[in-house]
Amino acid sequence: MVSNRVSRGAATAGLGFVAALAGCAALAPASAPLGTPIAEVRSGSFGPTGEYPLPGGGTRLEFAQGSFGRQTWMMDFDAKGILTSKEQVLTETNFARIVPGMPGAEVRMRLGRPAHVFLVQRQHLQVWNYRFFGQDCVWFQVSVSDAGPVTEAGMGTDPACDGPNDARE
Predict the structure, then answer these.
(1) Do 128 and 141 form a contact (C-beta atoms < 8 A)?
(2) What integer best gives the mean pLDDT of the chain?
(3) Is the separation of the CB atoms in 111 and 72 below 8 Å?
(4) For residue range 101-138, what is the model confidence (pLDDT) as tens digits?
(5) pLDDT per residue over 112-121, tens digit each?
(6) Does residue 38 contact residue 81 with C-beta atoms inside 8 Å?
(7) Within the chain, where are the H helices?
(8) Pick among 3.40.50.300, 1.10.1750.10, 3.30.1450.10, 3.30.420.40: CATH of 91-162
(9) What is the CA radius of gyration of the chain?
């Protein structure tokens, strides 16, 4: 009799766990199917971390997430507010499209908010740092001048990774 109660309880708990996982997946922005209205995406558990106007009256919503900001989803909606595309944008392919002279606002629209920003006051620069999946201890860095355009972009070493110290005493 006790074993029946235990197995029913375990089964109920297991089903609850599966339902909770499914619910979390349904609430994640990346799980929204094409054709979803923008109001439904905005009202989900994960609110957008940025919003950008698109040509033709559309809107791009940014969803920066993941550990240490390693994922950013961009979801594009047409002028009627219907989801037309979605993409995880923190990829080496997208990083390769960031070039000197590009306006900083365009970088933000393409990659979203950086995981970390630091100032280089002497050179009047901000350095935007993007972590991403696939490379440990590497991040993509974009230097943006006070005037707005990108001055340089490329891969760098993430200071969060504390490598071995080879200094000899």
Answers:
(1) yes
(2) 82
(3) yes
(4) 999 999 999 999 999 899 999 999 999 999 887 767 88
(5) 999 989 999 9
(6) yes
(7) 2-27, 38-42, 92-95, 104-111
(8) 3.30.1450.10
(9) 21
